[in-house]
Amino acid sequence: MAKTIELNIRRQDTPYSPPYWQRFSIPYRRGHNIVSALMVIREHPHTREGKRVDPVAWEFNCMEEVCGACSMMINGRPRQACSTLVDSLDQPIRLEPLSKFPVVRDLMVDRSKIFNDLKRVRAWIEIDGAWDIHEGAPRIAPETWRENYLFSRCMSCGCCLEACPEYAVEKDFVGPAALAAVRLMNNHPTGRYHRRQRLHAIMGDDGLSNCGNAQNCVRVCPKQIPLTTAIGELGRQTSLQLLRDLFGKSE
Amino acid sequence: MRRPRRVIVVGGGLGGLWSALRVAEAGYQVEIFSLFEVKRSHSVCAQGGINASIDTKGERDSVWQHIVDTLKGGAYLANQPPVKTLCEEAPGIIRTFERMGVTFSRTAEGLLDLRLFGGVKNRRTLFAGASTGQQLLYGVDQEIRRQEALGRVRKFEWWEFLSLVKDSQGICKGIVAMNLRTMDVKGFRADAVILATGGMGHVFGHRSTNSTNSTGSAACRAYQQGARFANCEFFQFHPTAMLGDDKTRLMSEAARGEGGRIWVPKNPGDQRKASRIPEQERYYFLEEWYPSYGNTVPRDLASRAIWKVVHEMGLGVGGEDKVYLDLTHLNPGFIEQRLHAILDIYRKFHGTDPVHEPMEIYPSAHYAMGGLWVDFEKDEASGGLKAGSPRNHATNLPGLYACGECDYGYHGANRLGANSLLSASFSGRVAGEAVASYLKGLEVGIEQVPEHFYTEEISRQQRINEELLKGGGGENPYTLHHELGEIMSGQVGVVRDNTTLKQAIDSLQGLAQRCQTVDLESSNSWSNQGLVYARQLQEMVHLGLVIASSALARDECRGAHYKPAFELTPPTDAYPGDPAYEVYRGKWKKQNQQWLKTTITEHATAGPRISFDQVDLSVLPPEEPRDYR
After folding, report:
1. Model confidence over A209-228: pLDDT tens digits?
2. Active-site residue, selected from the candidate residues B207, B299, B415, B554
3. B221 is catalytic
């Protein structure tokens, strides 16, 4: 018998309809990743039993693990589908949408909460305007750069949030991704000026203190971002801020 | 009080977000439309860097040299005033990015670091680790998020641009777009529209390094409504892309730079693993054909050589379209250190280790130099762009602007490495400022545009959807896309000739017909990706026709457009001053008189209508042919 790739896919037609499972079987080909396998199903959308069905809907774009679009549960683990090779997986491969976000259709979810949370923690540098001020860039020690760069690679894919036991659609915990963004912004030479606002944004309810220290986030991050290190640093920053708030220091 | 003017930006990559930022900063309301969350745009894929002459490496690099390299690299086909200002303002763009929080890599003393890139002699390329494009986009994305929080910008993510809405005078007054979840088709009013919709690599099927959403559809829709395209025959093929069924992935030039060798088995039927093929049975064709440069010939020469060895000599590995890029002879520790990013991508996506097995690569569609035609206003005093002119980056349709890869400015017939992130950012900034000036001069607000212009366009778009959903024709849109890719990569690709191009145009016309009768057989009308794809496919076939027709019209070799029947080669062993070389220079100048012109394509029912337009050569007159000897 010819070799095949077997996939069990959890499907859902609309945000309001019940989920169901379908089994697909496609011809084996070396080098398939999950997105390219889904592309084969999209072109010939037949279940293993030969029933013609709607093509599976999912999200993808860059295919180089840098845009963060194709996150999904693959054999129970949140991953980027484009960089997950079929040969590295046990079959049948189980594909499910991320569970911490509302399903749009099939494997597509609505991750707008991630971006709202970035707004909530003010993850930006306040600049006067996007024009040249004719002043050279501030010097940054190579070591500081290296640490910051680790965090600046966060692509808002949502894997860490999926793995976090405290993060959920119906809860307001900002989650590790937004916290790491605060760490990054607070360490920028001028981003520091607005450290207080960012810290206050994560000091209240549903902020930093909701982290249960499960350390799942750092284990699933496809970019190996040291999220727990960021959370630890923020713990110190918020404690100091609390003292400043109490004793009325301006910064 | 008058309602604030409103601007629609379509596309949320570097170009789109920069333009949105500048419009918002000018005090106008901005709505950004994107197919997905803007942070996932294709700009993130650019790894290498962004050019700006800051001369911190003791090499006496200059802005003028950046201008010369860009113009010559583009075979003089770019209008020169915009290029001049692009290079002059590049350091300022970098300083702005830096303030936005972009993590540019630093030297030991904390300065911005620079690296060397293809086609130039000085270090001029700034970078942020191995993900420069991602870092730059995130910098602007953060600023846009801040504008959003301030209520000046609103995002419409998961919306697909379908068409422009024009008033009775043909002035662009909004768009019609489709919600990619509900599939609702709606009209949106705007005083001006900026298209920043990126590249069109997927016209070449999966043989493209572009993100899968880079279909060129939005630009093509504007084209069919009267916007002009320019220089569409110029498409950069990157010689060393890793193969894939889904898309190809770039293996940077550094692989060859650090000593990688390109070869094929001498016997095309050789079934052995690459590592088992003995040295004398390997054909190192680049080293044989270009003894002085060897494996490090420029991108276009490498692509053509690979094409020749596979298509004309039939020596592709295993009879397929691929050759080996071999690093296995190099010290593993050395390449691990120098080429870590490449090794990482190859291991991750191919599952084998280039340290032990040669990589399989092939040229792949990488960057569209051509795109929507845009205007500029020259500042006579400086010879560059006139700052804030409403003509800058305006298309020929009043009220419609374009920036980023979807426009045609800056790169002429070929693009220099690390100039794309620069042109995307700069053109976005200029377009945003131009639109702000345009709005100041606008007397009538959008509230006065009669509703029927919108409702009629909405109905037209809904009818297109209904026709496609009726289906029944039995064609599979995904299969048709493969066919499109085969035609474009095989017949309109790296090497071109007129007979083949004519065949390609015939095939594309047939394909265009078949795209009308796709079978979408979808019972579910929610988030119908098949419908979206089928519509994009029609536009891609259309773009294929534009590219092929433009290529057919240009009977010469220039930059990325290579038609060997019309090749002009410099005499061997003769240099400037030698009589033989001067004869060649004379022929080259004569060729420029005939062909140093912008190709303009206009939509017509019978097919693309081609004409030619003068190029502004006021900065650097073409006296010196490009010479890589």
Report:
1. 999 999 999 999 999 999 99
2. B299
3. no
